[in-house]
Amino acid sequence: MDKMTSCKPYLVRALYDWILDNQCTPYILVDAEYPMVQVPREYVKQGQIVLNVAPQSTGNFVIGDDEIEFNARFGGQARHLIIPIEAVLFIYSKETGEGMPFPPEQHPEVTEEPLDSEELVDLEPTTTVSEAKKPSLSPVEASETAKPSSDKPKDKKSRNHLKVIK
Q: Taking Cα atoms as reference points, which of 79, 50, 77 lies closest to residue 69?
């Protein structure tokens, strides 16, 4: 029989649901130094960060088999966070402290350097990473044969499509 997959993502999902079912606030303690962790570095203390992962505090929250991914606000600024499951050290209830600690996992060797907080993409809660990348523009010289296009007909009166109802 092949090696079984890690049970950690299943335990994290189960404890998350259990904490919510008991009307408590789920928090996770994350090893912020683990490779590929994307969290706001300005909130990291002693290599760790505590995150409120309650539904009302996060957007697009997903606990996958390999990572936890969601959007959250820090100091009013929307951020997209990615936490590899291996980086989760503890999931617990804020109110009772009940939960489950996990032993720190050995950091794998990674060829890419982790992102600094300045490199993190600031997103609105419903924006994906691919939508956040914007094309760059560069100036070009106008040719003599180029003429401005007039594809749109010009209306004398531009009307709003909304009506005022009293």
A: 79
Contact 102, 88 (CB under 8 A): yes
Long-range Cβ contacts of 118-127 (<8 Å, 24+ apart)? 120/38, 120/40, 120/79, 120/80, 121/80, 122/77, 122/78, 122/79, 123/71, 123/78, 123/79, 123/80, 124/71, 124/78, 125/59, 125/60, 125/71, 125/78, 126/59, 126/60, 126/71, 127/71, 127/78, 127/80
Q: How confident is the model at residue 27 (pLDDT cuts 50, 70, 90)?
A: very high
Question: Which amino acid is it at 10?
Answer: Y
Share of the chain above pLDDT 70, in %: 65
Residue ranges of domains in the chain, CATH in brackets: 8-131 (2.30.30.220)
* pLDDT tens-place string over residues 38-92: 999 999 999 999 999 999 999 999 999 999 999 999 999 999 999 999 999 999 9
